[in-house]
Amino acid sequence: MSMGKLFERCSVLENEAVAQDVYSITLTSPMVAAALEPGQFVHLHLNNNDSEILRLPFSVYDVVPELGAIVILYQVLGNGTRHMTRLQMGDICDVIGPIGRGWFPPKNCSRALLVGGGLGTAPLYLLAKQLKDQGAIVDVVMGAGCSSRVICRDTMAAFDSLHIATDDGSEGFKGFCTSLSKDLLALNDYDYVATCGPEPMQRIVAAQCKDAGVPCQVSMERLMACGVGACLSCVLKTTAGLKRCCVDGPVFDAMEVIWDAK
Amino acid sequence: MPSRIDLAVNLGGLAMANPVTVCSGTFASGREYSDFYNLSLLGAVTTKGVSLEPWAGNATPRIAETASGMLNSIGLQNPGVEVFCSKDLPWLSQQGVPIIVNVSGHSVDEYRAVVERLEREPSVGAYEINISCPNVDHGGMTIGTDPVLAAQVTAACRQATKRPLIVKLTPNVTSVASIAQAVEAEGADAISLINTVLGMSIDAKRRKPRLARVVGGLSGPAIKPIALRMVWEVHKAVQVPILGMGGIMTGEDAVEFMLAGATAIAVGTASFVNPVAPIQVLAGIIGYCEEQGVTDINELIGGLVC
Questions:
Q1: What is the DSSP string of A175-193?
Q2: Which of A97, A152, B235, B269 could form a disulfide with A42 if both were Cys (CB 3.0 to 4.6 A apart)?
Q3: What pTM was computed for the model?
């Protein structure tokens, strides 16, 4: 929020499958890469076709400072992301970023629990690195439908503990990642929890943290058009009224969120 | 590149240095786009709709992407005219660009009350009276589809101000020309059109509408042919100038609107695709004029050869 959003042309360095229906794309975007903070996102224009004109918002998984590049993990969900899988080295797109308020962990955080569901794991990686650099113990919980959909297995293993849950039990704990987060919250003293993933999952993690008396931050998503705070498409109900996921979030204090009744 | 082309236009008393403004509701009060360019490059900024009291807008999802466009059902969420005057207008009035304030209401009295409040603000250059939003249950399009109500709102606002009064019309009518004539007769200085086209989108697998409000307003390139046709019809039916909009993405799109009869044009959904779209549209207009040997932009207005 403190600094302005940048708008820059970027080119594809690498684009490859990393899990079932999940790809990793690396884009040169030196200004955005230099300015981005963990949890902020970018709004990409793919020059796809004349029929699908809107930009696509993506969280940033990693930055590569020596290349001035950002790395995005994306799931193939529609025509736009299907088209994205066909981009090759040297292809051009443009990016608005960094957008929004990222994670804002407490200063001197001593032990943090990061809970990612599906692609929601991606925006937790830069946070994990930041917390680790600041001397915190970092425990990571990740959930996925099955083993072939687990992402970030290798990179997240670099932290203090990694706990994986799959719905079908093909890797790690059989069940939801919220069972693992519940156990860890009972076992360890945390002073910070960050979660990103499907909204019902984040809601459960937020409730667990409330019970445990641990501050929790969530990363919220709503369909958005402009991505810069102007169109009011992506509003979220909060205790302080409607807020825009794009620029007032995407990261919110979990206590502030009024969850949908559905 | 110093332009030798005279780009200035007069929109019903509002002097604009060039014919490009933005569509209400796509640009908030401009601050969000000031990261990308200097707003003084625009002919005017048109604000998000402002109502007498705060409006919460509709439930989410509020948008759905459709072929060459998008549906929205934002519902005129805004903090009300007092907050607008204390928070948004002071900033915008420092940007060196004429300000068109879009005015929303549930009733004739509410529209008039908003204008009366804004009369105390010297930085307001013109009003755009929104009788065309399809996303509210009272006011908006319910007024703009009825020539009698449209005339009443126009007359009430006319009594409240001597500033340029633009009335924004909906395409969701059989005869847009007759609505235009009704508001012109009550003192509208200009007419803007089109607002969004009522539409819907369905998720077949879930058997559910994609918008929480079920229906919403279609914008983007998909509606450009409708908008051009309506600008052309209204240009033939009234004397007052027209602010044309609907799916403008390029300078050539903008020129087409001017040839159909628009004095000025507004860029809306294109800003979502490309945050500098309004400036690229302006550059495209200048490029067209250079290529075609046009020295005064006003030559283009209604210049269609049929």
A1: S-HHHHHHHHHHHS--SEE
A2: A97
A3: 0.95
